[in-house]
Amino acid sequence: MDAKTLKTFLPELQRFLTHFDDCFHDHRCRQHLPVYVRGQLSNLPRKSVEPIALKAKVPVRTLQEFLTHHEWDHLLLRDRLQQIVATDHAGPGSVGLIDETSFVKKGTHTPGVQRQWCGHLGKVDNCVVTVHLGYTRNDFQCLIDADLFLPESWDQDRDRCRKAGIPDAIVYRPKWKIALEQFDRAVANGLAFDWLTFDEGYGGKPEFLRELSTRKQHWVAEVPKNTFGWLAAPKVIETSIPTGKQGRPLATPRLAVGQPQPRRLDDWLTRRAKLKTSPWVQYRLDDRDKGPSVWEVKHVRFWPSEDGVPGPAWHLVVARHVLQGGDVKYFLSNAPQGTSTATLLRVALTRHKVERCFQDQKTDLGMSHYEGRTYVGLMRHLHVTQLSYLFAMRAVEARRGKKGGGGVDDIAGAARGVGDAERAERGGPLAE
Length: 432
Fold this sequence. Notes:
Layout: H1 3-17, H2 27-30, H3 32-41, H4 49-56, H5 60-68, H6 74-88, E1 95-104, E2 114-118, E3 123-137, E4 140-148, H7 152-155, H8 158-163, H9 175-188, E5 195-198, H10 200-203, H11 206-214, E6 219-223, E7 228-230, E8 236-241, E9 250-255, E10 263-264, H12 265-271, H13 273-276, E11 281-287, E12 291-306, E13 309-310, E14 314-321, E15 328-333, H14 341-348, H15 352-364, H16 375-403, E16 423-429
Parallel strand pairs: 1-5, 5-6
Antiparallel strand pairs: 1-3, 2-3, 3-4, 6-15, 7-10, 7-12, 8-9, 11-12, 11-16, 12-13, 12-14, 14-15
């Protein structure tokens, strides 16, 4: 956002930031928040502390200490952001987006840094990984939570953690557990999701899917092609397992004699008649940037294997992009049985919106520009970046309302692409 455009939004920004006044116990500390946000929304080529401070003509060290040493409650700021989204942007059709992103870093001092899978580069490299929860509804999208993924090597070296300011309570947790904590936190702050969606890194964790189902949350999950299960429920019997001389035998379900064993999803698709010979149905999706997108889909019921016996019946959607080499994706969902294929496909393909959030926040707001070495500084930077992006999205919505659907080009670069989401056409499939 250039200086002229930013100036027109300053009164609105000032009003917006008053929602977070009680996150700060000191007026002087509170004054640094608009400085940081204006810097992130500006047209600075790099949004780290030093260029933001120099542009605002404040001491660099002061703004550094705002992130790392000043006393203010960034967790309350995160919670307040979620409450604002719940109050002002919630409604039918909401989708929660779970994903992770990575930041390439040199050296060994940034909290959580190590050689690990870096999705940004598509290879193993020295990086930091963070887990995020996003929220989207219609053309609105934002990130509402962020947590550091702490590798086991860091957790096992608590002296190293303390030097980076990582509290002893922050330990190694699988990414799906971090995501589940974020979901529970958002619900506690008043948010409700019609759907959750996520990639196979989370969809491939049966414990995660079970926990969400226990919470009565509907989800559409991409899952690995080696997920095992059945296209028809096999017969199961209860068998007794002796526990010793005392105590009753344990009743354990087992497949009945002669019942088929579970098979991989890709095996069902390529070798088993029930799925292989079922017809592909085409669905056309609309992408405002790239034009029409055509997917071919098969939709059946699927019983995943849980300890060798069938779990609850779920939707299985097998989809391939007609115009991009026919790459096959597999999605499972615990939605009600009558849910349409078009709805499941639309939700599944909504996940690219979180990638748009990552791209915009890294490119335009400096989410990946953090240069500090402390845990609290990193977390504060991530949460304030989410705040800056939320303001940009609200500004886009306000401008769209005034101009009847246009006017996004001169808003913050972080807002670019709003409304570019692929969506299933209301008419459904091209052919049944």
